[in-house]
Each structure stands twice: as C-alpha cells, then as structure tokens.
Amino acid sequence: MVNDFPQALTIAGTDSGGGAGVMADIKTMQENHVFAAAVVVAVTAQNTIGVTDFMAMPTKLIDEQFQAVAEDLKIRAVKTGMLADSQSVKTVVANLQKYDFGPLTVDPVMIAKGGARLLAEDAIATVRDELLPLATILTPNLPEAEVLTEMHIRDEATMQLAGHRLQELGAKNVIVKGGHETSDTANDFVLLENGESFWVSAPRVETNRTHGTGDTLSSAITAELAKGADVKTAIQRAKRYVSATIANGIEVGHGHGPLNHWAGRQLKEEDD
Ligand SMILES: Nc1ncnc2c1ncn2[C@@H]1O[C@H](COP(=O)(O)OP(=O)(O)O)[C@@H](O)[C@H]1O
Ligand SMILES: Cc1ncc(COP(=O)(O)O)c(N)n1
Fold this sequence. Notes:
272 residues; UDP-N-acetylmuramoyl-L-alanine:D-glutamate ligase; 9 helices; binds adenosine-5'-diphosphate; thiamine biosynthesis; EC 2.7.1.49; ATP-binding; Ribokinase-like; PM/HMP-P_kinase-1
C-alpha cells in the first residue's frame, strides 16, 4: 500500500556529536521500527563535552522543509525539540497549524546537559503561549517545568503540582521527567488528559552517559504514537526503551556520553 508504513517527524536541532537532537531522534525512531523524517530548525557544533556554536535555519528554509515533507510523506506523529529562538518557534507553530502530522509531542528543550542555552530567553514565552497549547504530550525535565510554571519543584508533590499547572497552560497530557532528581529511582510523573495520573519509574543508573535522554524519550513516545499506540501505552513503552538505552551504556566521547540506541533489541530478545 502506498505511504502506509508508519512515518514520524522530528522538528529539532542537529548534534554533530551524534548523541542528541535530530540524530538521537532518528536513531530512536529507526530502532522502534518507524520511518523517521526531519525538519532541521538549527544546526549545532556539539559533542559530548559541550556546544560550541549554533545557528538557526532561515525561516524560508524551515518552511520549505515542512512543505517537502507534507507533500510526499504521510506523517502519523510528530515531535519538537531544540527550536533556538522566537522566530523559529513561530515558524514551527504556523506549519504545525497548516499541516496535519498527527499527535504532537513537545519536548521544550532549553538548556543542554553541558549548560549551553538552546532556546533564547525571550522565546520561552513563545513556547509557553503558542506551542504548548498544541501539545498532545508535553515532556519537560525539572528545570524546564520550573521555568514554564514559574514554581520551585522540590519533591514528588511539587512535580505533581507542576504537571497540573502545565495542563492548565494547555498541554493535553504531561510527563514531568525526574532525570535531574537524585533519588534511587528515576521517577517521571504522568498526567493524562482524562485526569488519570501515575508514575513511570526505573532504577537510576550512576552514569554521566545521559546525553540525549530527553530526546530519546520523546522520540520513542512519538514512534509509538506513529504505530498507533494510545498515549499511556506510548509513554510506558518509551520509558522502558530509554531506561534500557541508559542502563546498557556504550563508551563514546569524553564528556556526557551518548546512549545505546540498540538496547531495544535486547528488550525484544528478553520478551521473546
Ligand atoms: N541516570 C539515570 N538513570 C535512569 N534513568 C534516567 C537517568 N537520567 C535520566 N533518566 C530518565 O531519562 C528520561 C529523560 O529525563 P531527563 O534526563 O530528565 O531529560 P532531559 O534530557 O530533557 O534533561 C526520563 O525518563 C528520566 O527519568
Ligand atoms: C540539538 C540538541 N537538542 C537537544 C539537546 C538536549 O539534550 P541533552 O539535554 O541531553 O544535552 C542537545 N544537547 N542538542
């Protein structure tokens, strides 16, 4: 059948070091048996040690990438990652309103693990006011949730409160990621559109090989949605996948190392 294979789209920045951004998204979607397409919003000069430079793509080129994808592919689920600046966020929002790419996962990327700012300060309001209300699923880490809700998150109770505030801001479903916490388990709080809430958890791995964890979780969710999973199932499967990529680390680079995107194959073997 023409155009029937599950296809997903990432709208994000590239990582020359291969561990995060568009590169992590494509590897994740591929490993989860979904065809991955990409609209590149920014290019970063980056490795596991840090980001040395980046540039946002011109608006016209972003528009043209959207048009090229929309005219030919049948995208069933889409995610956003690094969006760089306010102009780029507005361009992405306009294109998401123009084309139907299915459920939208918004990973509100702001600052890289190495400390570099990947979203201009004045673009935070644009993300909150214009992009967040389009989100089927919003996936902030703790610092991002704090910035978007303007509250201090200290514990599980404040993570839950933040989830509810983010839903009030317009995101249908929210997952507040606890990767930046220090407890023995990596606990993420999930609040669904119907009001149901629960935690997804995995043992915390003592490692600095966590470059691209957020991208990997959000693109695994997007891949599951592209295959037709419901939101709850997509989040549970994606958590299992990202946990395996962290737990079965590979040694690449000298800083915050990338994940083992092949680890899902091990999970399949365990299941069989
Ligand atoms: N050291 C770790 N061990 C296990 N899971 C982790 C670890 N660090 C992050 N995670 C998980 O990875 C996912 C991404 O979370 P996080 O690292 O907070 O995102 P981000 O990359 O956006 O900062 C979450 O499910 C989180 O719980
Ligand atoms: C292009 C791009 N997108 C996203 C991230 C965030 O990933 P992390 O928080 O793991 O550094 C990144 N470093 N680079």
